[in-house]
Amino acid sequence: MEARNFQATQDGHLTDDMKQAYQEDGFLILTGYKSPAECDQLRARMAGLIDAFDPQTVASVFETNAQAHAKDDYFRKSGDSIHFFFEEKAFGEDGKLTKDKHLALNKVGHALHDEDPVFEAFSRDPKMERTATDLGLVNPLLAQSMYIFKPPHIGGEVNCHQDSTFLHTDPLTCTGFWFALEDADDTNGGLYGVPGGHKGPLRRRFHYHGETLAMEELDETPMAPGDRHAPLIAPKGTLVILHGLVPHRSAPNTSDRSRHAYAVHMVDGNATWSADNWLKRSDDNPMRGF
Ligand SMILES: O=C(O)CCC(=O)C(=O)O
Fold first, then answer.
1. Do the domain assignments include residue 114?
2. Domain that residue 142 falls in
3. What single-letter DSSP state applies at residue 91?
């Protein structure tokens, strides 16, 4: 099954055909949304952040025998910071990295868009505001950002999920803006989505139950059989917009090509943010729009 794609407009506005495709499919593929130079600039900035980062500062979080609560705590505190998350088995039993730190990372998140000026400029692009508004977000707020590495050979699968599971508002407004910083396709761990799958219910919610973060099952409707998952082919510079209810996933990267991506998730500030969401911001550093 082929997913349709469109050439992005210069100013970020969506044409009627694009809006219709998003309403029907629950995703929208816009090629050429960012220039190759903008993608390279973001990659270079991330390489610089990694250069400046000492993995030993988080070895106790990621080493093989690390206490589960250490990883959990590092994740909980990442909502308003830049935290580095390593692939499984990146640290050996001796607490040392088993490979070059640039090739051992799974992702960096979750407030690059607020805490780093280069990521902020990429994320708070006026073009993006026009796109978000055309999608129907009245007061778009940038809730979280992630740089996703999917390293060659070891980049793992991301299981089929709906983004509103993680960023819940009433009514549901979570919308993913996923940028291919390198060509991403069905051979190097690219995305798959279920066309029309956003018309189904929210299946799960990941949220605080008191002090505990846990997944709650809401609806047992299956996401969709594998043959309904369409590869979302995304050449470098492509923006893939994902409705918060559309089931999507990514395959493992078994190729020798890397697949860097950057994702910003927005919610509508006019909807009610669920206070038990995993993502916490302090009162003096709230979520902001453009
Ligand atoms: O980049 C990936 O592999 C998965 C990204 C994703 O699922 C998301 O941004 O919601």
1. yes
2. 5-273
3. B
